Amino acid sequence: MNKYQEALENVKDLRIDFFDLGYIPYVTDSDIDNLKELVDKETPMKPLEDNYLGEFMCECGSPITKDYKYCPNCGQKLNWNKKEPCSSCKYNKICRVKK
Fold this sequence. Notes:
Layout lengths: L2 H18 L8 H14 L5 E2 L6 E2 L5 E2 L35
Antiparallel strand pairs: 1-2, 2-3
Helix pairs in contact: 1-2
């Protein structure tokens, strides 16, 4: 769990504690959703590879190169570590299906 995920969990727990004590928390569901989106963007994602052209793209569909640390279109943090083939794909290529 990275520091952003931990902070999000702390905010969720604090919000539940406030409800349990009978207080109305200042953190709304919308705030939690926005924080989750930020956490997801900061969690590194392996780029998708076009198996025919050897090019890479982000989940948003934007083309990217290995020079990028973040997607210029959506801001997703990228993980360029060595990829491992998906064990369930019959072509032994990188799978686009999230697990």
